[in-house]
Amino acid sequence: MTGGRGNGDHAREGRISGYALKIIRESAGLTQERFAERMAVDITTIQGWESGRRPLMAISTGAYLSLRHALLRLGAQFRLLMQLDMALEADRFVGYVLSAKADNPSAVDHPLASWVITRPFTDLVAWPFTATVPSGLAGATRMTGRRGPVATAPSLLPDERAHFFTHLRAATENADADRVDGMLLRRQAHYVAGFDDGDDTPDWLATMQRAEERRTRRADQWTPSWAVLRSGAHSLARFGDREALQHFIRTRLAEEVCEIANLNYWAYWLGEVSEPQSADTFMVELDPHAWRGTELLRHLVGKLYSTNPYVDVVAHTLWALVMLRPSTLDPHTADDLRQAATRTLEEDTVSVQSQRELEAIIYALRMIHRG
């Protein structure tokens, strides 16, 4: 597949939502046979949905709602059904990319130029490439008498993978840097392209990061390019280049406007900001007191460990959050944070700046406890 399927075929994609459906069915303790019986359909229909051969996106809205209601009655958790809805969105995106031209993508109706994607969506899109179960589905699977070898994640064929990442690289490189939606496409295509495990991916990411550094000359301002640099630094850290992320923290998070942008983005990424955003400008337009911060704090505390490739930005964001919103600290979370910060300092693997920030956190916790 070198030219895509042809535009208009998005509804033919169903691998991600199909695999999500399989996990949700298994979480309710249902075999395919039992589920087919309760749905009053042939077992081949269930198999077709779960394999993606009969995409859920292609069934009617009424049929899909009946499927969701049946799963809820049969014991599926509502939070998992929300993941199924998002999996359909992920399939629509994958279908769009596979249907589009690989090396000359149009930005006019590109999904990555229309909304700021979230962690649940990104986890689902990355699933076929990383084989990592999305956070919203992790821990939900229960074995139900499987026979023979079973796939552990949805997958794309080699030519589909090549087309997918070629398209995203072209979208990154050709996005209109003079438009807000063009820069949103540039940032998000850049980030998703970072899930390619090809040998040349780290070099491509580094080249794009250097180009964005040249575009963003002033470190004391927030611009859409700042957001691209932030995502690029995270992608490079995933490949083991922690210096890129440390450099971003040192040079691009020194001013209050950028600090607030980082916090607002984290809150949106993790769902504390529930309203969908259409442009990265929300990072500087949103009042940071519009979200609580408790979920963000708990997430960051859970990610504060030395082997996390993003540990430096986790430490810095924790420091900024505690300084800005100490009210988010309940006694239990404060104790967990103190232990995680102390352990990370003892392991002596983070940057000098992260060490100072973790020490400041421990000191602040001590003062709060005394008060």
List keywords for this structure.
371 residues; 434 Repressor (Amino-terminal Domain); 0% strand; globular
In short:
The protein is 61% helix and 0% strand.
Largest β-sheet summary: none
Total beta strands: 0
- The amount of helix comes to 55-70%
Low-pLDDT runs: 1-7
Shape, per Cα inertia axes? globular
Helix/strand/pairing category: mainly alpha
Order of helices and strands: HHHHHHHHHHHHHHHHH
Kindly provide the radius of gyration, computed on alpha-carbon positions and rounded to a whole number of angstroms: 22 Å
Beta-strand percent range: under 5%
**So how many helices?**
17
Q: Let me know the average pLDDT.
A: 92
Compute the separation of the termini in Å. 65 Å
Characterization of the model:
The structure is a single chain. The chain has 371 residues and is an all-alpha fold. Among the domains are: 1-99, lambda repressor-like DNA-binding domains (434 Repressor (Amino-terminal Domain), Orthogonal Bundle); 102-133 and 157-251, no CATH class. The chain is built from 17 helices and no strands. Helix 1 (15-27) packs antiparallel against helix 5 and helix 7 (158-174) runs antiparallel to helix 8 (180-193). The model is unreliable at 1-7 (pLDDT under 50).
